UniProtKB/TrEMBL annotation:
<keyword id="KW-0723">Serine/threonine-protein kinase</keyword>
<dbReference type="InterPro" id="IPR000719">
    <property type="entry name" value="Prot_kinase_dom"/>
</dbReference>
<dbReference type="GO" id="GO:0030261">
    <property type="term" value="P:chromosome condensation"/>
</dbReference>
<protein>
    <recommendedName>
        <fullName>Aurora kinase</fullName>
        <ecNumber>2.7.11.1</ecNumber>
    </recommendedName>
</protein>
<dbReference type="InterPro" id="IPR017441">
    <property type="entry name" value="Protein_kinase_ATP_BS"/>
</dbReference>
<keyword id="KW-0418">Kinase</keyword>
<keyword id="KW-0067">ATP-binding</keyword>
<dbReference type="GO" id="GO:0030496">
    <property type="term" value="C:midbody"/>
</dbReference>
<dbReference type="GO" id="GO:0032506">
    <property type="term" value="P:cytokinetic process"/>
</dbReference>
<dbReference type="Pfam" id="PF00069">
    <property type="entry name" value="Pkinase"/>
</dbReference>
<keyword id="KW-0808">Transferase</keyword>
<dbReference type="InterPro" id="IPR030616">
    <property type="entry name" value="Aur-like"/>
</dbReference>
<dbReference type="GO" id="GO:0005524">
    <property type="term" value="F:ATP binding"/>
</dbReference>
<dbReference type="GO" id="GO:0006325">
    <property type="term" value="P:chromatin organization"/>
</dbReference>
<dbReference type="InterPro" id="IPR008271">
    <property type="entry name" value="Ser/Thr_kinase_AS"/>
</dbReference>
<dbReference type="GO" id="GO:0004674">
    <property type="term" value="F:protein serine/threonine kinase activity"/>
</dbReference>
<dbReference type="GO" id="GO:0000070">
    <property type="term" value="P:mitotic sister chromatid segregation"/>
</dbReference>
Length: 360
């Protein structure tokens, strides 16, 4: 979001209408990032009892969404000098936003600023059991440093004996995956807008030497204004050398070089962009098959069937992204100038669903 709504109307915002203002929330929360205590997975302790909710003593849990927010301060009120990091007591928690293998995500409000965020709670015991300490640390290190309108902001993090807490931007419209399943497939304008947004985010990531490696609808969220945001960097890697060997990501989105165990680079994200484009338009990934063996075969030889309702321009952009040779895939900068993008998603265009909601 490029415009600060708080400065226009600081008294009348509902708490769910202000999740992404860079002018305000960056000043409110990011100023405290350097005070965060980083997670220390090697010292994790097993929880003595199952933890249902990270916070039990909040009296405002059910009021987070309904009550209007006060005027936003320009900066987060200074904490006591003796308090050097965030703790869960600094937040009121609301409804769950999602559940995963390693923890849950909650709607939350920072008590002093009353700013609404998403609080991702990871359980140390489960991280240890799955031996993904390095992956979690890498995700935090990468996402905390990225600043782009189409990347979910991580404002900070802290931890206690049992859990790690990630303070994230709240994306009001939820997961792209859920929206896609509700509608079966998107019209070409909506799909083109999301591909445009994701392309911009990937150009930025690559400029920072970050390869995402796990682009898929489940890892993409939709912000307040309908903008797409990359939300999960669990498989991402900072790779100045640009060549990697690790097999990671989701099968349907793996590139030919990855399934063959060859070195891979930024071009794996370009391949995933093409796969996503197809899934948004059709409702299923292009290499979907009865078993993994057939999926591997389809990916290796780029066996794709385009339904009749797909336009020629859409087929053209996908055919230039889904190329076996990584060096021959369309560069991301050219994606933004492809006729299909220019026709359906010129700058300022919003997804059809969001545009129709605003018109009502």
């Amino acid at each position: 979001m490029n415009k600060c709504r708080c400065k226009e109307n600081s008294e009348n915002h509902s708490l769910e209408t202000r999740p992404g203002c860079k002018d305000c929330v960056g000043k409110i929360l990011y100023s405290q990032v350097n005070k965060m205590v980083p997670p220390q997975p090697t010292n994790f302790k097993m929880p003595s009892v199952p933890i249902g909710k990270p916070l039990h003593n909040s009296t405002k849990v059910n009021q987070i969404v309904e009550q209007p927010a006060p005027a936003r301060p320009e900066i987060l009120p200074k904490k006591d000098d003796k308090k050097k990091s965030w703790s869960i007591s600094d937040f009121d928690l609301g409804r769950p936003l999602g559940k995963g293998k390693f923890g849950n995500v909650y709607l939350a409000r920072e008590k002093e600023s009353r700013y609404v965020v998403a609080l991702k709670v990871l359980f140390k015991s489960q991280i240890l059991d799955s031996e993904i300490e390095h992956q979690v640390r890498r995700e935090v290190e990468i996402q905390c440093r990225l600043r782009h309108p189409n990347i979910l902001r991580m404002y900070g993090y802290f931890h206690d004996e049992r859990r790690i807490y990630l303070i994230l931007e709240y994306a009001k419209n939820g997961a792209l995956y859920k929206l896609l399943k509700e509608r079966d497939r998107f019209d070409e304008r909506t799909a083109a807008v999301y591909i445009r947004d994701l392309t911009k985010a990937l150009i930025y990531c690559h400029s920072k030497k970050v390869i995402h490696r796990d682009i898929k609808p489940e890892n993409l969220l939709i912000g307040h204004n309908g903008e797409l945001k990359i939300a999960d960097f669990g498989w991402s890697v900072h790779s100045p050398s640009s060549r990697r060997m690790t097999l990671c990501g989701t099968l349907d989105y793996l590139s030919p070089e990855m399934i063959e165990g060859k070195p891979h680079s930024y071009a794996v994200d370009i391949w995933s962009l093409g796969v996503l484009c197809y899934e948004l338009l059709v409702g299923l990934p292009p290499f979907d098959a009865k078993d993994s063996h057939q999926t591997y075969k389809k990916i290796r030889y780029v066996i794709i069937k385009y339904p009749d309702f797909i336009s020629e321009k859409a087929k053209d952009i996908m055919s230039k992204l889904l190329v076996v040779n990584p060096e021959q895939r369309m560069p991301l900068a050219q994606v933004l100038h492809h006729p299909w993008i220019l026709e359906n998603a010129p700058e300022g265009t919003k997804p059809t669903l969001m545009a129709s909601n605003e018109a009502q």
